[in-house]
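Lecture notes, unit on protein representations.

Consider one protein chain, 137 amino acids long.
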Amino acid sequence: LYIYTSPMFDLSLRESASHVVLVVVAGGLLLAWAYRSVALQRRITVLTTHQAPAAKSNEKVAKKEREEAQANLEKTVADVCSAYALCTVNASFVVLWLISAFYALPKFSADMSASLNCLLAVVGPAALLATKGTAAL
């Protein structure tokens, strides 16, 4: 957002406050959806290929140990998958934002307003990642 207030885009926060709020809220919600989708898909993938190690003690204790080990595995996998989603979605968003804000949109229309560029360059990649994120990442 800071770059849109720079002299390059010259977007006035006072004049475009509602527009900025709309872009931030819409982009944030779409990115949150993308984080959740990617983390959930990765978690399903990891949990289908990994399982908790079996215990080697008696049957009654083994069942309790196995349940605890499975719960620990699921918690660890959830944490790792959340970190994976944050890294991949953020990296993908930055690359898509850079391409759209500085290459694709200026090629499409050289005299595009800064507020429209901001809207399309932020919400567009966020929407793409929210809808197609699990397939691409």
